[in-house]
Amino acid sequence: MGDFGLTFGWRTALLLTLSVQMLAFAVALSTQDVNRTANRLLAAFLLVATGVVTPYTIGFAGAYDAWKGLTFAPFALPLFLAPLLYGYTYALIEGRLPARWRWHLAPGFAQLGYMAIAFLLPFDTKMAWADVVDGPWVSPVFSIGVLLGLVAYSAAALRLLRRFRAGLADERSDDERYAARWLGRILAAMLVTTVFWAGWQGWHALSGFDYFEFFGLHMAVGVIGVLLGVEGWRHAGLRFRRGPVTVRFSDPEDARGSAAAEPDWPAIAADYAGRTREAGWWREPELSLPRLARYLGTNTGRLSRAINTGLGVNFSVFVNGLRAEAVAQALTARPSADLLDLAFEMGFASKASFNRAFLARYGTAPSRYRQEARSRVSDHEFEHAAPNLRRADA
C-alpha cells in the first residue's frame, strides 16, 4: 500500500450510501414475478449505476493511490445506462424486450471487453496505455457515446411514454394510475443531467481535469438511481401493459349500418351512458373499455366510437365524470362527509384523479363545492327557522 492510506470522507460516505440503496432495490426488483422483464432490466440499470459511481466512491477514499493496479478495473460501464433505461420503459409498457435487444447492449459489452483487457495488461504497460492512448483517445470516444446514447434513448423513452398515455384515456378510467409520470420526470432529470455532463466534458477538455469537480455529477447519477429504484419498487406489481382495443364492428347489423349510413352516435352514447349510470358500473375503480363493453353487450370499437363521437369525450373523462356527479350528489346530501372517502367510494383510484375530474366536470375544486353545499344547507335551515322566529317575537 506504500505511503498511501485510505480515508473515509464525506464524499465517499454519500456515494456509498446511494450505492447501498441502489443495490438493495436491485436485489428486491430482481425477485418480482409481475412485470418480470421490466423489473429485471431496472435491476440491471441500478447495478450499472452503482458501478458508474464506484470509481469515485473508492477514489475519494484514496483507493487508486493506494492500489494503482485498480486502473481500468471494469466498475464503470456507462454505455449500458441509456439502453437499459429505454429497455425498462419499453418493457414496462409492452411487457417484452425491444426488437433486436442484443444490439442495443452491444456498445456496453464492447466497453466491458475493452476495460477487462486493459485491466489485465501488465502494470507498466497498463499505465503507459492509460496515459498515451486511453486518456487522449479512447475515453473521449466512450464519453461521446455515453452522452449521445443518453440523449437519444431518454428522448425515445419519453416519446414512448407520451404515446402510451395518449391511448390510456381511451381505454381505462384509472388512466392516471398508469400514466407513469414519475418515470417521465426521472427521464427528464436524466436528460438535464446529460446536458450538464456534456458541459462538464467540454469545460474539462479546454481547462483540464479536476477529479473533485465530478463529485456533483456522480451524486446526480446516484440520486436518479435511488429515485428510480424507489418508484420502480412502488410500481413493481402494477400491470402497465394495455390490451389491444378492437376498433372494428363485430356483428352484421353494425357492418351494414356502417356501410349504409352513419349511426346516430349521440343516441347510442346516451343509451350507453344511461345504462352505465343506472347499473353503477362506474363505481369499479379499474373499469376499462373492454369490461364496460362486455357489460353493455357490445364491442370496444362501437363503445369507443359512441363515447368519442356521441359525447365528445374519451373513456376516462366519461367514467370519471359519472363518478364526479355521484360525489357532488353525495356532498349535496351530506356536506360534512369526508371528500376522499366519498371519492374512493365512487371509484376514484387517487386524490389527484378525483380533483382533476371534479374540476373538469364542475369548474371548481371539490373543497370549494363542499363549502358552497354547506352554505346552501345553512341558508335553507335559516329560511325554515325564520317564520318560527318571527312568531316567537310576536
Structure description:
The protein is mainly alpha-helical and 394 residues long. The protein folds into two domains: 10-234, Up-down Bundle (Rhopdopsin 7-helix transmembrane proteins); 252-393, Arc Repressor Mutant, subunit A, CATH 1.10.10. The protein is built from 16 helices and no strands. It has helices at 10-30, 36-59, 63-66, 81-94, 101-119, 123-168, 181-207, 215-234, 252-260, 265-279, 289-296, 300-311, 315-333, 339-345, 351-362, 366-393. The longest helix has 46 residues, at 123-168. It is elongated.
Summarize the structure.
With 394 residues, the chain is mostly helical. Helix content is 72%, strand content 0%.
Number of helices: 16
Overall pLDDT confidence? 87
Structural class of the secondary elements?
mainly alpha
| Count of the separate structural domains | 2
CATH class category of the largest domain: Mainly Alpha
How much beta, percentage-wise? under 5%
Poorly predicted parts: 243-253, 255-259, 385-394
Helix content: over 70%
CATH topology of the largest domain: Rhopdopsin 7-helix transmembrane proteins
Biggest sheet: strands, sense, closure? Answer: none
Estimated radius of gyration:
29 Å
**How do the SSEs run, as a string of H and E?**
HHHHHHHHHHHHHHHH
What spatial form do the alpha-carbon principal axes imply? elongated
Alpha carbon gap, first and last residue: 104 Å
**Would you count the extended β strands for me?**
0
CATH architecture term of the largest domain = Up-down Bundle
Transmembrane segments: 12-29, 41-64, 70-91, 103-121, 141-161, 182-200, 212-233
Protein name: AraC-like DNA-binding protein
Pfam families: HTH_18
Domain HTH araC/xylS-type: 284-372
